[in-house]
Structures are given as C-alpha cells and as structure tokens.
Amino acid sequence: MMAAACALPALPKELQGEVHFAGSAEGIQAARRNYLTAREAHRLLNGESCVKVWREKRGRSQRELAAGVSGGYLADIETGRKPGSVVALTRLSKALQVQIEDLIMSRNG
C-alpha cells in the first residue's frame, strides 16, 4: 500500500503569466514560500498531513491557524482521524495561502 500523497502545488496566482528567474530576488522569495523543499516533499510522501506540512512551512501553530476551525478538529485533520470538510479545508487553504488542492490527500494504488 502506498502512502497518501498531496496534490502538487498549483502555480501561485502572483506568478501566473510571469517568469521569475533564479537571479530575481522576488522570484527566489516566491519560490521559497510557495514550493516545497525536498524534505517537505519527503514528509508528504511518507504520509504526513498536507495541512501540517504547509502550516509548519508558514511558521504557524495549530492555535494560530485555527481560522474558523476548532483546534481539536484541526488536530484530527492533521493526524488523519478526520479528512476535513470542504468548508474547513477551504478556510485552512485561505489562511495558509495555498490552493485547496494542496491540502487534499489522494490515494494512489
């Protein structure tokens, strides 16, 4: 059985229609903020919660992120006890500034 994997991040709206090269400080900052490092990608491939990985990437605690979702429910989503409703995942995606697809687990195999 393969581990759960998150959808690949969509190109951020601020980068759509633009090309940022490695020499651009703005492009480097956007890439660091909006794309996963190899370590973060490995965490996802090993089945860790997409919500937790993105929350930690953004430097937010569960309490800070709650965003209209109870802390207990957020913990249940992060531990996989609950999948998270569309409403909850939408709120969390807005608070984390990612696409909802970046927070949804997909099962392959």
What's the SSE blueprint?
Blueprint: E1 5-6, H1 25-34, H2 38-45, H3 50-57, H4 62-65, H5 71-79, H6 86-96, E2 105-106
Antiparallel strand pairs: 1-2
Structural overview:
By secondary structure, this protein is mainly alpha-helical. The protein has one domain: 434 Repressor (Amino-terminal Domain) (Orthogonal Bundle), CATH 1.10.260. It has helices spanning 25-34, 38-45, 50-57, 62-65, 71-79, 86-96, and strands at residues 5-6, 105-106. A two-stranded antiparallel sheet has the order 1-2. The mean pLDDT is 78.
In short, what is this structure?
This protein has 109 residues and is mainly α. It has a single domain (5-106), classed as 434 Repressor (Amino-terminal Domain) (Orthogonal Bundle). Helix content is 46%, strand content 4%.
Output the CATH topology: 434 Repressor (Amino-terminal Domain)
Task: Give me the CATH architecture, please.
Answer: Orthogonal Bundle
Spell out the CATH superfamily. Answer: lambda repressor-like DNA-binding domains
Largest sheet: 2 strands, antiparallel
| Beta content | under 5%
Shape: globular
**CATH top level assignment:** Mainly Alpha
| SSE order | EHHHHHHE
Report strand order across the widest sheet.
Answer: 1-2
Spans of at least 5 consecutive residues whose pLDDT stays below 50 are: none
* Residue share in helix: 40-55%
Total strands: the figure is 2
Round the Cα radius of gyration to an integer and report it. 14 Å
Mean residue pLDDT: 78
Label the structural class. mainly alpha
Through-space gap between termini:
7 Å
How many structural domains in the coordinates? 1
> Helix segment count?
6
